[in-house]
Design brief:
With 325 residues, this protein is mainly alpha-helical. The protein is globular, with a radius of gyration of 21 Å. It has one domain. 73% of the residues lie in helices and 0% in strands.
């Protein structure tokens, strides 16, 4: 039974259908919100939108670099072009309701490059855990800087919550992370990692992950700043970086929503509302979501275009006549 399922997943028809479905769902979001998008862009400076788009692309690309570092550490180093095709095209599975589609898509694409499915799944799990941990570090270590001493909701606890950050750093110690992964894999009834995560690989993955959070935090900062918010730049940047990290963690935990849709926006709007009034939070939240969706699509298309003959092979395989039975 499992063999038949895996054979079905390798079918070019299934892959092509999945890719079209993921692209359609991502594009449908843009079409569905087109009126609100048009209204939002009127309120934001065009140069700010262009800069925010560049930062959105940087965020997605740096996330891919973090995943690639983990995969290499687990024993399957991939060239940048191959890794881009696996990560960026497979990541479109996030737009299909249910987190499993991202895992399945990346595992099948990586298998074409000789990476075992099990290792691809392990790499994505480790990369997500690194993302969660680094996001938690920013929430506890950076967000309190924006709130502490301010006459704002949450200012009272900002002084002591920062002490949680050193505790989260322990999760980035290889011995601790490997033990934690072992427990999680046993609870999920999965086999243990083939290779333990090393300090070098973990440091590289965490570094790329932190850079990706900084990029998307700067994206939110640019959008909020373009609305004329007069907060000090340092505190506003801390609010943007830590606030988005918090929103991402909440959105990730809501696994049934496509790419964390809904929950992430509610949290990010609440954080942005601390600095921007009126319809400002809605503009920032919608702008951030749209730009990240566009970044996903751009990088997926670019990864496909950069793979020599990838589309031609898929087209030939899909149009190959079936042998009579």
């Amino acid at each position: 039974m499992l063999g038949r399922v895996l054979a079905l997943l390798r079918s070019p028809w299934v892959r092509g259908t999945f890719l079209l479905l993921a692209l359609a769902l991502a594009a449908a979001y843009l079409v569905r919100e087109r009126a609100a998008i048009a209204d939002a862009w009127v309120r934001v400076d065009a140069r700010a939108v262009a800069l925010a788009l560049v930062l959105s692309v940087a965020n997605v690309a740096l996330s891919g670099a973090s995943w690639r570092a983990v995969l290499a550490d687990l024993g399957s180093p991939l060239p940048w072009r191959g890794a881009a095709r696996v990560f960026f095209v497979g990541q479109l599975g996030r737009y299909v309701p249910g987190t499993v589609f991202q895992f399945v898509a990346q595992a099948e694409l990586a298998r074409d490059l000789g990476v075992p499915r099990r290792r691809t799944g392990s790499a994505l799990a480790v990369a997500l855990l690194v993302s969660m941990t680094t996001a938690g570090l920013l929430v506890t270590g950076v967000l309190p800087f924006a709130l502490h001493g301010a006459d704002l909701p949450g200012g009272a606890w900002a002084g002591w919550v920062r002490w949680v950050a050193p505790l989260l750093l322990v999760l980035l110690v290889p011995a601790v992370l490997n033990r934690l992964l072992g427990v999680l894999l046993r609870l999920a009834r999965q086999e243990p990692l083939e290779h333990p995560v090393t300090a070098r690989g973990l440091l590289a993955a965490a570094g790329w992950a932190l850079a990706s959070w900084l990029a998307v935090g700067l994206q939110v900062f640019v959008l909020v700043r373009s609305l004329g918010v007069d907060w000090p730049a340092g505190r506003l940047l801390a609010l943007a970086v830590g606030g988005y990290a918090l929103a991402w963690v909440v959105g990730f935990l809501v696994v049934l929503a496509p790419a964390g849709a809904g929950a992430r926006e509610v949290v990010l709007a609440a954080v942005v509302a601390l600095a921007a009034s009126g319809g400002g939070p809605a503009v920032v939240v919608l702008g951030s979501r749209v730009l990240l969706t566009v970044a996903d699509l751009l990088l997926a298309v670019a990864a496909l275009a950069a793979t020599p003959g990838a589309l031609d092979r898929l087209r030939r395989a899909s149009s190959r006549p079936r042998s009579p039975r």
